[in-house]
Amino acid sequence: MDNYKGVLVCGEMADGKLAPITIELLGVGRKLADELGEELSVLLLGSKSGALGQDAIAYGADNVYISEDSLFDIYNSDAYTMATANLCKKILPSIMLFGYTDIGCDLSPRLNGRLGGGLSMECSALSIDPATKLLVTTRPVFGGNALATMLSKTARPQMATIRAKVMPPAERNDSRQGKIIPLEDKVDPSALKVKVVEKIKEEVEGVKLEDAEVVVAGGRGMGTAADFAKLRELAGILGGAVGGTRVACDEGWVSATLQIGQSGKVVSPKLYLAVGLSGAMAHIAGCLGSKCIVAINKDNDANIFNVAHFGIVGDWKEILPPLTEKMKELKGK
Amino acid sequence: MNIIVCVKQVLDPEIPPAKFKVDPETKQVIPPAGVPPVISVYDERAVEAACRLKDKNKGKITVISMGSEKAADVIKHAISMGADDGFVLSDPAFENLDSFGTAYVLSKTIQKIGAYDLVLCGRQAADWGAGQVGSILAEILGIPVITLACEIEVAGTNVKVKRIVSDGFEVLEAPMPSLVTVSSEIGMPRLPAGMRLMMARKKQVPVWKAADIGAEASFLDKGNAHTEVTGLSVPSRKIECEIITGATPAEAAANLAAKLANLI
């Protein structure tokens, strides 16, 4: 276990640049590495990786491992697992950091299974225990209703995935020095069992729920699919998106892809308008990151008032129409 | 085809948070009185996915669940939906295992069950949400894994999976046997039909212990755990909700709009 040293960031690229999450991971990775007095490395896979090596050094990496093989240009779970596992077996990183992204969520658990490490998903904080020098991770559990701290006493690497925008990005410093090291092992394409057949981009009408700055959500109290149209009208005026609770989606009032909550989408808009929903634990998990939560509910004991900043106790049917009118006026100004 | 589905029994996540309490000493949740545990939502979708595959391709669905002996309830739920058989894996040595330990127990169980074409798991559990048991299990079994499925079909000797990614979908293929983790986008689980419900209720669900599946003590030893929970707490939220009132609902709405003016 003592021969495991250093922090390895599993990097990602987007639009020919380092992905923002990778710059954030380099930021927190640098801090952890400095505390341990060890090196920070990053792995970049794909034909653009060589060109971005210097950028990664400027953002704090001591070593940039690259493979410019175009095999890596589209994420393939098998290919990435093999390449990353091969590198890990050589450099024996003590800590590995991944984004809580499409790639990180697929790659990290598999790699963990292969390497026999200890993985914490969706971490909100990372620190080094001063006495033991172990990585301590904090992560939401029970749909964000509780926080757990975890560590790996003996399993290596100690692995963590981190959501985007949780950690501040690393500061760029072009005078930093580092090494760019091409991977020695090639991945044999014939060894890949999983094949990517097709990629389909989803066309979203209006604003994407996860990206919306205003979200209007409805629950059981809405009553019908037709009533959801009223939420859509308000969302439209505010340039926002509509979502629903599990019940609203199960009832078919709103598309299942617009479910907000633990088993649906997690949103963190500036304004979250919760209409006719009580605020079950699983739903709250999907909206707690919102800057301002507003609740409209008949039941003044509804849990949603415990997490809301503003609330109106009353029938949404009497409140929503005048609210929509007022919002229209405000937006018009 | 033979499909094995791994399911977990969890605290019902649809409870109001006021009923949710944790014991910081044991780092466990205190089960609220009068709230029966449920099948984890993604696992129920995995059972649904298995049932759809069986509808189309015939075959047998076996459901396994590691937990207390009460986990027989979630096996019976899966049988009422269309599964054929099930086993509960319960042993004091299985309590509070980490993701690796859980995957190990499931792997030994699957090896005991024998021939299979597909293993299905929910993408993550609704309680601890570690999101890694399926992938570790696939690595232990040495079979391909595809995560976050929203559609699964059989294409000859391959499994063809549409999976969720942030900007849309990917379609992947892997030779069977494979493991697939299922996301909620696969769609609503079916409601159990009357006859099946009766049958499920009567079904005897065998309980397998560590010795029954040949699980070795060293893999279940908490001292060898890959991860350890060192703390569990409910974060306090110091939010005072400002209740907006008015002489009429319209006036309350106008007052609220004024408060939100700077946010829109």
Total strands of chain B: the figure is 15
Helix count of chain B?
8
Helices and strands of chain B, in order, run as EEEEEHEHEHEHEEEEHEHHEEH
- Strand tally of chain A is 18
Helix percentage of chain B:
25-40%
- Largest sheet, strands/sense/barrel of chain B: 9 strands, mixed
Rg of chain B: 22 Å
| Number of helical elements of chain A | 9
In which range does the helix fraction of chain A lie? 25-40%
Fraction of residues in β-strands of chain B: 25-35%
Largest sheet of chain A: 7 strands, parallel
Give a short summary of the structure.
The complex is a heterodimer of chains A (333) and B (264). Chain A has 333 residues and is of the alpha/beta class.
Written account of the structure:
Chain A has 333 residues and is of the alpha/beta class. Chain A has helices at residues 20-36, 49-58, 77-91, 102-115, 225-237, 246-250, 281-284, 304-307, 316-332; strands at 7-10, 13-14, 17-18, 40-45, 63-67, 95-99, 118-123, 125-128, 135-141, 146-151, 158-162, 179-182, 195-201, 214-218, 241-244, 271-275, 292-297, 310-313. In chain A, strand 8 and strand 9 (135-141) form a beta hairpin. In chain A, helix 3 (77-91) packs across helix 4 (102-115) and helix 5 (225-237) runs parallel beside helix 9 (316-332). The longest helix of chain A is centred in the first third of the chain and has 17 residues, at 20-36. The mean pLDDT of chain A is 94. Chain B has 264 residues and is an alpha/beta fold. Chain B has 8 helices and 15 strands. Chain B has helices at 41-57, 72-81, 99-113, 133-141, 194-202, 210-213, 217-220, 249-260, and strands at 2-7, 9-10, 21-23, 28-30, 38-39, 60-66, 85-89, 118-122, 145-155, 158-165, 168-175, 178-182, 207-208, 228-233, 242-243. Chain B is globular and about 70 Å long. Chain B starts with a strand and ends with a helix. The mean pLDDT of chain B is 94. The chains are: A alpha/beta (333), B alpha/beta (264). Chains A and B meet through helix 4, strand 7, strand 9, strand 10 and strand 13 of A and helix 3, helix 4, strand 9, strand 11 and strand 14 of B.
